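Bench log. Compound arrived from synthesis this morning; before running ITC I wanted a structural hypothesis for how uridine 5'-triphosphate sits in the protein. Inputs:
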Amino acid sequence: MARKVTKAIFPVAGLGTRFLPATKSVPKEIMTLVDRPLVQYAIDEARAAGITEFIFVTSRGKSALEDYFDCNQILEQTLEEKGKDDLLETLKATNMESGAIAYIRQHKALGLGHAVWCARRLIGDEPFAVMLPDDVIAADKPCLQQMIEAYEETGGNMVATMEVPPEKTSSYGVLDVGENIGQVVRARGMVEKPSPETAPSNLAVIGRYVLRPSVLYNLNQNKQGSGGEIQLTDAIAEDIRNGVPVFGYKFDGQRFDCGSKSGFLQATVAFALARDDLRDDLRQYLHDAVVTGQAAQ
Ligand code: UTP
């Protein structure tokens, strides 16, 4: 039986340039969908999947992220004194247990593969998850939990995958599909950011992975790939060449690319519409805005 996955790496050391000027001082992962920062959605998903050790790969300017997970005693005390129990509960749910969270620094933004490699000593010789908080996935069963359940059957490496329009392949790692076994596909290869003409399929890899420690050994070579960056995709593809299987998991759920402005806005609307306290007002607003917009054309 595959070894239990209890550690997750959250690479959050990127520059977040698509959200400038906001990301000049606010880490992208702290930006909020309604009232919760992106990183909280990722942590909740990880916890639901049985993760107990949370490793953040951070960089200069990300201290707001570290502060976010601290217990804010003054705030808790104030809410308690005022009898605001619901808010107090919400706040307490964001606290992390002592020792459960570790921060490690990526000194230069050399790529996602390099960021993951920075956490190698904290992972050791165990399978581990990688979660990119800017991919937010709305699902009945959290995406990482779906993947870990599938991984417990298959072993090997498992990456979350979804179909994208052929013209979008150059924004993703893309699978060369060997065998198709229902929700799971076995990959023959993986390519980072292929052009639509050379893409082996339109099955893109998105920001959830369950990986073998062998991927970390592959990253030891620090080889530059697409865009001059050290790519996680290349290190996973190397496992395939070494005979370690790699599976794509076609998850159930809706993925929002919150690293892009349009994806972030769509997620904001979707998550607000899912809330009982916001739905009616927002629906009314959207209806009026769309109808008025159409009338003006
Ligand atoms: P992105 O490609 O979205 O880059 O990184 P970015 O810097 O976050 O954002 P833009 O493109 O400049 O707007 C994908 C994930 O990989 C992490 C990012 O933090 C993000 O979670 N990453 C990327 C690192 O941790 N280190 C790197 O060197 C590169």
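What the model suggests: Residues 11-18, 28, 57, 106, 109-112, 114-115, 132, 134, 259 surround uridine 5'-triphosphate (CB under 6 Å). The mean pLDDT is 93.
ITC booked for Thursday regardless.
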